[in-house]
Amino acid sequence: MGGLPQGDHEAEGTTMPEDTVRTRVSAYAVARAGGSLLLTRLSAASPVFEPGLWHLPGGGIDPGEQPADALARELREETGLDLLDARLLGARSYVAQRLGVSWHLVGLFYLARVAAGTPTVTEQGGSTGAARWVPLSGLSKERLSPAAADALRMPS
What we know:
GO molecular function: hydrolase activity
Order of helices and strands: EEEEEHEEEH
Radius of gyration: 15 Å
Keywords: Hydrolase
Family: Belongs to the Nudix hydrolase family.
Number of domains: 1
Cofactor: Mg(2+)
Number of helices: 2
Strand content: 35-45%
Shape: globular
Domain Nudix hydrolase: 20-156
Strand order of the largest sheet: 5-1-7-6
CATH superfamily: Nucleoside Triphosphate Pyrophosphohydrolase
Distance between the termini: 24 Å
Largest sheet: 4 strands, mixed
């Protein structure tokens, strides 16, 4: 499909039988404030991306749930912060393998304005181990998920 944005992290030349691939549609917050980006550190419970990577707040959209509602729910669970406003920036597609599962992930990226406060993980046992505002100037030193790396290249 020419002209549509492609994820930079697709495995070229890799094909997986359709019946073994799980598809997940997720909504992610790209929240910037004071020269920092709001990020979450993935825990061992992360279903798609490697634990320990810094990732965007957000996650899977439940059946029947609207993407903006999923974004607000995930943001609250992973950071304790409320979503004030969101505007769709774009979408990216990824393939990954984790814990014996092949994934096709479609990420919807939203420029998000969030309530002030210190990020605190409120969901216990989830895929988020930590949340914090990370200075943009120091992001090159951090290990980022493919989705977080793509978000840095998106115009806001």
